[in-house]
Design brief:
The chain starts with 5 loop residues before the first helix and ends with a helix. It is of the alpha/beta class and 259 residues long. The protein has a single domain, classed as Nucleoside phosphorylase domain (Rossmann fold, 3-Layer(aba) Sandwich). It is built from eight helices and ten strands.
Amino acid sequence: MFPVTPSAALAAATPVAILSALSQEQRGLVELLRSPRKVSHAGRDFWLGELHGQAVVLALSRIGKVAAAITAAALIERFGVRRIVFTGVAGGLADGVNVGDIVVATDFLQHDLDASPLFPRYEVPLYGKTRLASDVDLSALLFNASCAALAQQSLAAHGFAGACVHQGLIASGDRFVCGADESRKLRDLLAGAGHAVLAVEMEGAAVAQVCLDYGVPFAAVRTISDRADDSAHRDFPRFTDEVASPYARAIVERLLNLL
């Protein structure tokens, strides 16, 4: 029997998926891959290779819950990933969740899901659940990686004094929340139903539901790009390019070294 080299072992390993909605959120990661290989599937490009000693698949979920669910299912069915980690940006909803902060999700809900009166508002029909939990162990590693990344001097240089890492509930929906009145109404509606939401985005809950069905651990981290208010559409593009990308790269690097 011939010995298995590290590279051969990694090639045969079940990979970790790193998922983001936008290409800017994964900028630099593809260039860091060792032995990169692009596979096109389900109208999407998936990049396979080795990153920080781990076999990985990099993919873009695209924007919105349906697109994200399709990508997550493809990662599991086609590439047999053993974990999915989502990195990206979100709008801050809770008081004290500010631009430049990081939120690691403990669980997700769909803020635009309403099958009442057949089911309670926000409950996923036939699941008996309103909130879908992240994997506890993977989320703990992601939290540690996020804290280490935020403490890095080069990230602090972006000027977000006092930025911190939060853990809690993230709301997902097929709407870019970008008005102060809309943001306040959404936060109050969810709080009235017993859901204290930290941030809002457009994909996480869908990926969490797919991973629940397949029994695949899932964790997500979101950098707060805006306060989901009237300035969100102006803040978002520049922040994604200049801040979210280096945040995500640093967090992924540290997470993969912890696995």
